[in-house]
């Protein structure tokens, strides 16, 4: 038995979810000899008819119900030839992803690429394996086992293998694509199980270093409550690395789960060996991402949580009133007796003399504070000329606040005269010195989000998309890719810093 045969049998066993037909008179079964659809006049199949009418929805439905994309009409032409001649890009992609054969020729010896319009010719320059992998990823994105079964069957007919670990330009394998979609039915779990049984690499990483487990954990926030953990548990059962973090934000699945606030998901990851002490690129642990008290308690007490100890606040309160306090026996009064003798006075022996600690110079105090607050050097704030007179506490107040707070009682430099200032009084006007605030608009433009966006998840999502777009590994021939990638990193960091987030 070949690999394709085994996969076909396995999918047949997994096909349990009923198929819901869209409205319309289209039959639900297909046989080349049935009226499903050969028209006697032109020998035209329903699929070719749908392509000629540019009916993408009907064509997709027919292909999912086992319509043969390589069947010819009475003129010896296939549906792919018709779509290519009409220049329909969506239909061409659909047929190629359904493994339509590009090598078939019409009676005039022309192939689909010979008939193709100019704007769709590039589809036919791709190798057949590209469309095999793309078709499988499309089935994975839809959690469509029926489509995957047809792909295996047609690949067997063409004597070609379908690579379940084939990655696209962003490094997404079919398992990545499947895990990134929130499970909405039991077919999602069955499709994931089929991929794992077909030896899909469970710890494969995309360009951002994300594993299928990270994507499945993130997608669980949008899933139904009863199905949200189905893919996560399958991946963990297949020995998915629970402590692997992505290469951009360095966040683990446990941090994603803590940010969602799903206590059951957090407990599942902890029982699988997730480490709560790991930190992200910003130095945050999963506890810093936690949204509710129960998740915080689990992360603070992982041993108790995994052993089945209940969350303290969940314990039922006792309605039985406490018993009244028992009377305590009165202690016996001590009998008066002779007073103890007064202890003799022992003078304290003087210790060794120590010299007073030498005070730090202004330069030493300044260097120690700059080392403690390294961000001050790049903030653009200058030290006042008379700061050498300040105490250590006053210097730390100014440097630690990045110049926003001035030591009380110390004169500030005047930038312009006040309303009553005249000649000779320019230096006595009202102080209007303020720390310059950099504009965030260029950083928002780099990430492609609206100016003033403050939602951290929206910013993270835009950062991931920008990092995928400009990743140097994805754009080896673009000399500006590395600079744009770094620009996206800097923009995300500056926005998070200005909004008080930890990037």
From TrEMBL:
CDD domains: DnaJ. ANK repeats lie at residues 42-74, 75-107, 208-247. InterPro entries: Ankyrin_rpt (IPR002110), Ankyrin_rpt-contain_sf (IPR036770), DnaJ_domain (IPR001623), J_dom_sf (IPR036869). GO terms for biological process: protein K6-linked ubiquitination. Residues 428-437 have a biased composition (Basic and acidic residues). Residues 319-344 have a biased composition (Pro residues). This is J domain-containing protein. It comes from Effrenium voratum. The lineage of its organism: Eukaryota, Sar, Alveolata, Dinophyceae, Suessiales.
């Amino acid at each position: 038995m070949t690999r394709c045969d085994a996969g076909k049998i396995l999918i047949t066993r997994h096909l349990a979810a009923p198929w819901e037909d869209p409205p319309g008179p289209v039959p639900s079964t297909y046989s080349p000899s049935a009226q499903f659809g050969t028209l006697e006049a032109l020998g035209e199949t329903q699929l070719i008819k749908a392509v000629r009418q540019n009916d993408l929805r009907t064509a997709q439905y027919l292909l999912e119900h086992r319509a043969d994309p390589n069947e010819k009409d009475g003129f010896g032409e296939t549906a792919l030839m018709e779509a290519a001649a009409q220049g329909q890009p969506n239909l061409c992609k659909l047929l190629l992803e359904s493994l339509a054969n590009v090598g078939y020729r019409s009676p005039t010896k022309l192939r689909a690429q010979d008939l193709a319009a100019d704007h769709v010719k590039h589809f036919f320059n791709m190798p057949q394996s590209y469309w095999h992998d793309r078709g499988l990823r499309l089935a994975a994105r839809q959690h469509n086992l029926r489509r995957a079964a047809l792909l295996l069957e047609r690949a067997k007919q063409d004597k070609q293998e379908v690579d379940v670990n084939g990655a696209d330009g962003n490094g997404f394998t079919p398992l990545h694509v499947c895990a990134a979609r929130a499970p909405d039915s039991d077919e999602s779990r069955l499709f994931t199980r089929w991929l794992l049984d077909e030896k899909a690499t469970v710890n494969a990483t995309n360009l951002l270093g994300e594993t299928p487990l990270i994507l499945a954990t993130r997608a669980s926030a949008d899933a139904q409550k009863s199905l949200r953990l189905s893919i996560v548990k399958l991946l963990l059962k297949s020995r998915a690395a629970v402590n692997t973090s992505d290469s951009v934000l360095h966040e683990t699945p446990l941090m994603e789960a803590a940010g969602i606030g799903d206590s059951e998901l957090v407990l599942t990851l902890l029982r699988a060996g997730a480490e709560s002490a790991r930190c992200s690129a910003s130095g945050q642990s999963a506890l810093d991402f936690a949204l509710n008290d129960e998740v915080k308690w689990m992360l603070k007490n992982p041993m108790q949580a995994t052993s089945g100890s209940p969350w303290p606040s969940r314990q039922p309160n006792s309605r039985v009133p406490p018993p009244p306090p028992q009377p305590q026996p009165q202690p016996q009064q001590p009998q008066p007796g002779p007073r103890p003798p007064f202890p003799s006075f022992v003078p304290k022996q003087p210790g060794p003399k120590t010299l007073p600690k030498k005070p730090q110079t202004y330069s030493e105090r300044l260097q120690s504070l700059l080392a403690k607050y390294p961000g001050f050097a790049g903030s653009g704030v200058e030290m006042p000329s008379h700061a050498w007179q300040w105490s250590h506490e006053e210097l730390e107040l100014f440097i630690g606040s990045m110049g926003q707070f001035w030591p009380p009682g110390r004169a500030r430099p005047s930038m312009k005269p006040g309303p009553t200032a005249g000649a000779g009084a320019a230096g006595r006007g009202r102080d209007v010195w303020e720390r310059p605030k950099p504009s965030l608009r260029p950083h928002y433009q780099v990430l492609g989000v609206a100016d003033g966006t403050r939602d951290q998840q929206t910013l993270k999502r835009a950062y991931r998309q920008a990092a995928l777009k400009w990743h140097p590994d994805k754009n080896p021939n673009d000399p500006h890719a590395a600079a744009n990638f770094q620009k996206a990193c800097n923009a995300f960091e500056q926005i998070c810093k200005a909004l008080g987030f930890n990037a």
